[in-house]
Amino acid sequence: MRNAFYKLPVLGMIVLAAACGGGDKPAETTNDTPQGSGAAPAITTDAPNTTATTAPAQGTVHTVRMTTTQGGASGTFEPADITVKKGDVIRFVSEGNAAHNVSFPADQNAGKSNLPPPSQYLTNGQSYDLQVNLDAGSYKIQCDPHAAMGMVGAITVQ
Questions:
Q1: For the segment 73-120, what is each residue's pLDDT rounded down to a tens digit?
Q2: I need a surface site. Which of 3, 32, 57, 116 has the fewest CB within 10 A?
Q3: Residue 15 falls inside a structural domain
Q4: Chain CA centroid to CA 141, Å
Q5: Would strands 127-131 and 89-95 be described as parallel, antiparallel, or unpaired?
Q6: Which domain holds residue 85?
Q7: The predicted structure's pLDDT at residue 20
Q8: Total-model pTM
């Protein structure tokens, strides 16, 4: 039993090294949106400054930068307010070292259906593509960890 106890840290390091991966692996995207959620997100999880989508955009691709401010304590959506059409894609690109996400809080979007689930957290150069399948109207968005510090925005679907 004592011998197994000493091998535990070594096993943990091997598992950690395997999880970190490395090399020149191509970008991976995920599409974890539940059926009927109203969005088809694609999340880029590889090296900075790369983007990918799971399906070609049917409409215009709009880029919203998620910038880090105050040394990582806050951030902004640039632009904070955007107008799109159903079928367009909104590409949220994280800039800076803080982790940001895109969330459609149900309490701020009362009466709206098919709200997309919150995106995964993104850091510098990672992106999240949101296929706009929302009904016409205005939707409030936020970065969950930075909402209280003003990282909020609005999407208007025509």
A1: 889 999 999 999 999 999 999 998 899 999 999 999 999 999 999 999
A2: 3
A3: no
A4: 12
A5: antiparallel
A6: 28-157
A7: 38
A8: 0.65
Please say whether the beta carbons of 157 and 139 come within 8 A: yes
**88 in any annotated domain:** yes
Give domain status of residue 11, yes or no: no
Query: In 117-151, which positions are buried (b, 16+ CB within 10 angstroms) versus exposed (e)?
Result: ebbbbbebbbbbbbbbbbeeeebbbbbbbbbeeeb
In a domain, 148, yes or no: yes
Domains: count for the chain: 1
Give per-residue pLDDT as tens, 16-54: 333 333 333 333 333 333 333 444 444 444 433 333 344
Q: Where are the alpha helices (DSSP H) in the chain?
A: 2-20
CA distances from 44 to 10, 37, 72, 93, 123 (A): 31, 20, 21, 10, 10
Query: Is the pLDDT assigned to residue 12 strictly greater than 90?
Result: no
Q: Which of 150, 145, 88, 149 is nearest to 122 (CA)?
A: 145
